[in-house]
Amino acid sequence: MARAALLSALLCFFLTRCVVVGAAVAKVRQQVGRARLAQLSSESSFVRTLAFKHTLRVCNAYPYSAPMEIFHGKTQITDPPLPYKACREFSPPIRDGDKLQFKIGGSNAGSFAISELPNNDAVLVLIVYRHDAISSAVAFESHIFSNLINAQIAVLDTYKGHAEAQPRIQDASSAKTSRSEELRYDSVVAVNPGIYEVVLQSEDREMKARAELVALNRESYVVVRCGVEAQEGQSYSQELIVFPHSDPKMLTGSA
């Protein structure tokens, strides 16, 4: 009787180990099979997630002697800081919900939250300017350019004061034609490739400012009237910001 019980116990122990070892082997084979399946799926897949290029451009239209510092999250992206009337293109990837912080003269000036980025390649332009002629508060104007073949120009007015002036775009003095058209504020227009001159004229046709604009296909430009007639502190006369400054040599290949 004792011998039979011992044999039964040994058999039970042996079978239990067999079951455990068998289960472990089966689990390893299952994991190897899944890994192989994932590898085959990865090798055979021809579908990829699209990564869109969103370019950020910032223009400092805030009239002040000290330059502007810009932070993307906690990272400062202006090195050196951005002076008044200057624009710059920034390379860090931007996403919906990202926040840009601005400092002028070492003091916090405000923040801007990025939102509603399109599902295609696009250029986001952000203009920082004076909110009014009394306070030193900042305001923001933004525009997202569509992805078009023609050169596009966004026309914005950030000047604060009583003076009135209207921008016009005309052929450069070296051109064979002498066309001239008014640019309406808060509008986006398309132009053919070429070298143009943007002028700012008062109501009595007096020239207030002028700037060259080299228009290339598939490029996005801004024309901004800036300045402030300050009730307190320093005033800044009306001026024009045109950005970017394209190379005229690229016109032969812009079609």
Write structural notes for this entry.
- A hairpin with a 7-residue loop joins strand 7 (122-130) and strand 8 (138-145).
- The chain has one helix and 16 strands.
- It is α+β, with helices and mostly antiparallel strands and 255 residues long.
- The strands form four sheets. A four-stranded mixed beta sheet has the order 4-1-7-8, with no helix packed on it. A four-stranded antiparallel beta sheet has the order 3-2-5-6, with no helix packed on it.
- It starts with a helix and ends in a 12-residue tail after the last strand.
Topology:
Layout: H1 2-44, E1 54-61, E2 68-72, E3 75-76, E4 87-90, E5 99-104, E6 107-113, E7 122-130, E8 138-145, E9 151-157, E10 165-171, E11 180-182, E12 187-191, E13 194-202, E14 207-215, E15 220-228, E16 236-243
Parallel strand pairs: 1-7, 9-15
Antiparallel strand pairs: 1-4, 2-3, 2-5, 5-6, 7-8, 9-12, 10-11, 10-13, 13-14, 15-16
Tag the structure with descriptive keywords.
four-stranded antiparallel sheet; 17% helix; four-stranded mixed sheet; alpha+beta; flat; disordered N terminus; 255 residues
In short:
The chain is of the alpha+beta class and 255 residues long. The protein has one helix at 2-44, and strands at 54-61, 68-72, 75-76, 87-90, 99-104, 107-113, 122-130, 138-145, 151-157, 165-171, 180-182, 187-191, 194-202, 207-215, 220-228, 236-243.
